[in-house]
Amino acid sequence: MAFTGKQLTTQLDADGTLTVQLNDQTWDDPKPGQVLIQVEATPINPSDLGLLFASADTDTAVYSPGKVVAKMPENATRAMKARHGMPMPAGNEAAGIVVAAGEGCEHLMGKRIACVPGTAYGSYAYADPNMGFEVQDGVTAEQAASSFVNPMTALGFVETMKLEGYTGIVHAAAASNLGQMLLKICLEDGIPLVNVVRSDAQVKLLKDLGATHVLNMTDADYMPKLIDAIAETKAMIGFDPIGGGTVASQFLTAMEAAASRGAAFSRYGSNAAKKVCIYGALDLGPTILNRAFGLTWDLSGWLLTPFMMKAGPEVVGRMRARVMKDLTTTFASHYAKKGTLEDMLTKDAVAMYNARRTGEKYLVTPHG
Amino acid sequence: MAFTGKQLTTQLDADGTLTVQLNDQTWDDPKPGQVLIQVEATPINPSDLGLLFASADTDTAVYSPGKVVAKMPENATRAMKARHGMPMPAGNEAAGIVVAAGEGCEHLMGKRIACVPGTAYGSYAYADPNMGFEVQDGVTAEQAASSFVNPMTALGFVETMKLEGYTGIVHAAAASNLGQMLLKICLEDGIPLVNVVRSDAQVKLLKDLGATHVLNMTDADYMPKLIDAIAETKAMIGFDPIGGGTVASQFLTAMEAAASRGAAFSRYGSNAAKKVCIYGALDLGPTILNRAFGLTWDLSGWLLTPFMMKAGPEVVGRMRARVMKDLTTTFASHYAKKGTLEDMLTKDAVAMYNARRTGEKYLVTPHG
């Protein structure tokens, strides 16, 4: 039995033309160990946008029904040479109803699952049930759509903290969906968390959720406050989705200042371990490190999949079980706007979700 | 019995005045487990300069016999608040004759040792014999003066490579004394090494020493050549004493390009581990990361003492034994100029060694 519908693809050509469009597609029976879902709901995460539009100019793009043609900057075009000329599907995660099941997955027929197809921007998608889970009765597709990327990343931060011997976290852009989840986890588990945001409204949002330490990085006294908060919480590992600019440098500088408070001068800085993980690129500009933090420090890229491979099945199983249990509470996501596959390719929609503004997330519902 | 002589100190005051001067001093009997050496020879390493002059302006300083008074920039003065008003001795390593021995060290009386006093710019210095070693007969003080910082750092890079699971090294400013040692070690041990330098003369110097891969970073085709060399050697850990600018960023970018050669496009970059360790600050400016290297990468500060603590006594013992054995061959140091404590505080001498030019090292011989 075959299913027909639309599949979104994004293609970058060598001349810098980026074409994001819907194509007619047919889905055949899934392979053994796989299922086919009718995609009910799939979010657009920052991690999807890197593939979908990357740094293409969506303001000057040409929009027609089901199609966007934009121009990619030259250096980005060159850097992504490996994808030239290839129509690539997108959409990391989704919730949907199993409409066909491969060998060994028959028990899932007709069930709603949360999963990570990587091709979720389509009418249907193949998925590996081992990477997802069956959604409990009464949980809607909208509630289950974002059950992987943000929840597992937030839990991954806490596990990274533990694995590397730290006892508290500093988080940038902390008012995001992900940041709110991290806050709830830390409150539940009694983990000290320093939340760094960009506006007083975001300070209020997180305070209302119960946060103790929320700092506005645009305040004139941000740095002394950050040093105080780190000295108090011993939060010596940071997570930064911004990437560009001096966010990570400021974290490390404040950690060093907190660690060497009251200590004798050392030309090499303190021996206290301090680390920042960059896990996104909300600012595509260069990372600037002022290196006013001695010689004992680490800065790393952080990505969910390699982390899960390193952490191993026991840790990952524990993380997933917690997501299933608390999907509609701790791990609830909020969407500023919803639309079909056609809607998501309109100028208004692209302008909204490609701005990557904190709290303004788009949910795609292919079947309306 | 007491010994008298001169001791250099460096003092930074809150108003930004840096005073480096010689003071009269008396050395009493060493404590148990310690020895007192008459300092014969002590090098000025880049790691000493961070304390000695830091970023003070030595061009406009006032020089008088045995005294230099310079101005420190405001931000640096503020950053080094913990040392304000304190006269600090300097000089990491030295060779000297044991003139007094504390309890348990009597067997060393009259012997020449290589050691790490931390106060070596003086007529005499206390030292812990466990952190140094007795020099073999026929080895001069000049030959033994630099037997700790550079040799142990070069060996430390190789041990770091092994501990972290890498199999080849990229090294910046590779024509330095340290770089030449690293090259000799890698040649002896069959470890792939990519040497990065700044001039054709340095390329020739390292080629003459037997290097296979030597790249001039000022060449127009530096990046493609670096990618080729890393692809060939699988050198996925780099060491960078420059710190400022884009050296580390270029290393990570080239490692990523080499790792993803021929691979399918991934929006997150390759999963290949890649790391750069910044171990100095020849360029005090900010580190600029262009982050064109996916999300699987590490950038860390690297410092000898914490590394030795992490590596443990067995590894460190093995490193030290190798230094003792090969002190006049693999670990030989060269000096462009020599002088007394008074000489090292003249304008000409400071201008020379504070320029931190590759291959232009100063040796202090307090007793002429």
UniProtKB/TrEMBL annotation, chains A, B:
Annotated keywords: NADP, Oxidoreductase
Domain of life of the source: Bacteria
GO molecular function, one term: NADPH binding
Matching SUPFAM superfamilies: GroES-like, NAD(P)-binding Rossmann-fold domains
CDD domains, per the entry: ETR_like_1
Annotated Pfam families: ADH_N
Residues covered by the Enoyl reductase (ER) domain: 16-364
The protein, known as: NADH oxidase
